[in-house]
Amino acid sequence: MTETVPKIRMRGLCKAFGDKVVLDGLDLDVGQSESVVVIGGSGTGKSVMLKCILGLLHPEAGSIQVDGEEVVGLHGQDLERVRRKFGMLFQNAALFDSMPVWENVAFGLVQGQAVPRNEAKEIALAKLAAVGLGMNVGELWPAELSGGMRKRVGLARAIATTPEIIFFDEPTTGLDPIMGDVINDLIVKCVRELGATALSITHDMASARKIADRIAMLYEGKIIWAGPTAEVDRSGNPYVEQFIHGNAEGPIEMEVRAL
Amino acid sequence: MPILQPIGRAFLGFLEVAGRLTVFAGTGVSHCVRPPIYPRLILRQMVEIGYYSLPVVGLTAIFTGMVLALQSYTGFARFSAESAIPNVVVVSITRELGPVLAGLMVTGRIAAAMAAEIGTMRVTEQIDALDTLATNPFKYLVAPRLIAGVTMLPILVLVADAIGVFGGYVVSIFKLGFNPGNYIKNTMDFVETMDVVSGLVKAGVFGFLITLMGCYHGYNSKGGAQGVGTATTNAVVSASMLIFCFNYFITEIFFAR
Ligand SMILES: Nc1ncnc2c1ncn2[C@@H]1O[C@H](COP(=O)(O)OP(=O)(O)OP(=O)(O)O)[C@@H](O)[C@H]1O
Ligand SMILES: [Mg+2]
């Protein structure tokens, strides 16, 4: 076996909430230092997939391997050790509202890696600067930020510990187009220069084209298409075509009734 | 038998909750003793529970002591047994009223606040975020609260005991015309170490129950603002119930011969 082990390998992942099946036999590989973007309609289970990998939700069936190690069913110290490899930007940022912004960003350094507080603060302010937030923002409280600022603080927190694997759940949603592109560049930089593995979720095709090495589409609990970014326009898959062109007409039917 | 079915289901539901609660408590306690320990967080909780509850607990205690003296007097005067008032006041306060009333007041303040805070963190995914930052929420959120609850409640109750007895003293001296020296001598002669110790043991147990209920209901809250509201209510109600229930059994352990 000389085949390289993918950084993340998901096979037959199933997750349901009550009767509602969200993931239904999902297969996806993310290679070492690769940037994969998952696209798919709202409510198809993209965020749920990320939470399953992190062990925040427990899949009913299937396997998830990180660096060749099975992580489904891990708990305690082992789970904590695996989680140290990850950084996660939550869709709604999930900032700690009981501490100022800089402490949010420094949290992983102080708690996880025992970096002294003043040193961690310097790193935190540098990361905040990298997402376009000045020194003064560091002293604010999360409740005092705008939606886009919160997202960027969440991003700074996700990358603060320079993790091996970073999950970005809709990194550019709610940002203006220019700041969106700055964030795209930042994600690309994390992957290219720091060698991180990235798994991102986005609805923004421009952003997907920019940050992805590979794009995968999630539909009805399965990955129905995956391929290099350049091939997304000639996928030959009607679902993907409909999605990337944003047509209301097509095989994907939205459950809406006309007024 | 359609009558037995709901009873069985309710019983199974009760067992499930009891089981989950036991696991939660066990995990919480185990994280209290295993490093890393967060002294800053423990201190913050101690101030919140101990220091900021002092006015509420003190006011409750002083009025309870006062009314106790007044009521005993109106009752005992019929049998010319007024001299027993100091004894009644000190034993009632130290054994029962101090710990139970302080426990209930702290429940109102602390269990509700904890359930709301932790519940909000749950529904806004802040607890998930803690997990992804390799910080165990039990260690970071639950353990400091449990430690603070178990240590601060006995201190609060000791203060409540003193203030409550003082309340009885004030009414007896200034309203009922007792002799101050006799009153204090009677109190001191009658109270036993065990009265105070049993009250402090109760306080420690209550402190554990209050913080446990606040953390448990907050940690398991679901949905949004409404879910947090439900969690807060459940925390206060269940903590109050458990206080009365454990109060009886601890009393039985100490005093039933
Ligand atoms: N904790 C939960 N309890 C019950 N159902 C849930 C829970 N979390 C997610 N779901 C359901 O799972 C489905 C997928 O949710 P998810 O958040 O993964 O969607 P998504 O693909 O990220 O959508 P979006 O692009 O809008 O963020 C949704 O239909 C949602 O109702
Ligand atoms: Mg989502």
Q: In short, what is this structure?
A:
The complex is a heterodimer of chains A (259) and B (257). In chain A, a hairpin with a 2-residue loop joins β9 and β10 (222-228).
Fold and architecture overview:
- The complex is a heterodimer of chains A (259) and B (257).
- Chain A has 259 residues and is of the alpha/beta class.
- Chain A is built from nine helices and ten strands.
- Chain A has a six-stranded mixed beta sheet with strand order 6-7-8-3-9-10, with helices on both faces. A four-stranded antiparallel beta sheet of chain A has the order 2-1-4-5, covered by helices on one side.
- In chain A, helix 3 crosses helix 4, helix 3 packs parallel to helix 6 and helix 4 (117-130) crosses helix 6 (147-159).
- The longest helix of chain A has 16 residues, at 177-192.
- By secondary structure, chain B is mainly α.
- Chain B is elongated, with a radius of gyration of 21 Å.
- The N and C termini of chain B lie far apart (44 Å).
- Chain A binds chain B through residues 51, 54-56, 80, 83-84, 86-88, 90, 92, 94-98, 107-108, 111-112, 157, 161, and chain B through 117, 121, 124-126, 128-136, 140.
- Magnesium ion binds next to helix 1 of chain A.
Secondary-structure map with pairings?
The complex is a heterodimer of chains A (259) and B (257).
Chain A (H helix, E strand, L loop, with lengths): L7 E10 L2 E11 L4 E5 L6 H8 L7 E6 L2 E2 L5 H8 L2 E4 L11 H13 L3 H14 L4 H4 L8 H13 L5 E5 L7 H16 L4 E5 L3 H7 L2 E6 L2 E7 L9 H8 L14
Parallel strand pairs in A: 3-8, 3-9, 6-7, 7-8
Antiparallel strand pairs in A: 1-2, 1-4, 4-5, 9-10
Chain B lengths: L3 H30 L5 H13 L2 H23 L8 H39 L2 H7 L4 H38 L5 H11 L2 H27 L5 H31 L2
